[in-house]
Amino acid sequence: xxxSIIDGKRIADGIRAEVRIRVERLAAxxxxxxxxxxxxxxxPASQLYVRMKGKACEEMGLAHWTITxxxxxxxxxxxxxxxxLNADPKVHGILVQQPLPPQMPVADVVAAVDPRKDVxxxxxxxxxxxxxxxxRFAPATPAGVVELLLRSGNDPGGKDxxxxxxSNIVGKPLAALLVQKxxxxxxxxxxxxxxxxxxxxxxxxxxxxxSAMGSPRTITADMVRDGAVVIDxxxxxxxxxxxxQGYRTVGDVDFEPVKAKARAITPVPGGVGPMTIAMLLxxxxxxxxxxxxxxxT
Length: 297
Hints:
The protein is of the alpha/beta class. The chain contains 10 helices and 11 strands. It has 2 domains: about 30-115, 3-Layer(aba) Sandwich (Rossmann fold), CATH 3.40.50.10860; about 140-270, NAD(P)-binding Rossmann-like Domain (Rossmann fold, 3-Layer(aba) Sandwich), CATH 3.40.50.720. Helix content is about 40%, strand content about 15%. It has a 6-stranded parallel β-sheet with strand order 1-11-8-7-5-6. A 3-stranded parallel β-sheet has the order 3-2-4, with helices on both faces. The longest helix has 21 residues, at about 10-30. The chain is globular, with a radius of gyration of 19 Å.
């Protein structure tokens, strides 16, 4: 019969509806609340992501601003722009879109953002709070994975979870979330990566397998146990002459063969992607609530 499809768009729409209620509550207080994206250079993918985030903000009733800076901007000049946003009371969320040009010290850029406005949850202070189990914000994509699992009836509590990928954006923070003694956590977590010997031996014992490598169709059916839940975070473009744009977007998982073995699986696109933006919106509203002293219900 094959796996049930975990519909990320449907679940994300539910989260957006919850966020909209919180936005309306803030608006009733006369609060101007919004998200500012800082875009350095003219990377087409970054421009697209920023437009998508802006559109999502508008749909929620959140203000959104984009600051576009030249690719050859100096670090002191970028730091000055971030400082202005840190001081602006209308701006509750700041995201500096990555990748950044090579002259930029990424760690310094991340640390320059006020951690109270760091809705991407990249600042070292916020990363540390996630690790010790008292997050100010949860990083958007990992938080989206957790909500996907919970809202699709696949609570990770007590399960063996294998995460393939150790990035600072997905793999590491997701592991930190899932090992906590908390809702949507209490899992036994293994993090596998490019240095793992016999990767399939680890993935085959997973009750829940999360792949976040960005390596197209690397997770094959023989690497997945019967009845596993498979969450595909990876996105890659592969050539496809049948498509108008000449390529197709696929995930890390060889979808159709794995779908035949799994109990539940996320598609690419339409799985984790919509959740990332929904959780970013939630974090932005949470930052506004904290700044205004509004308790979250």
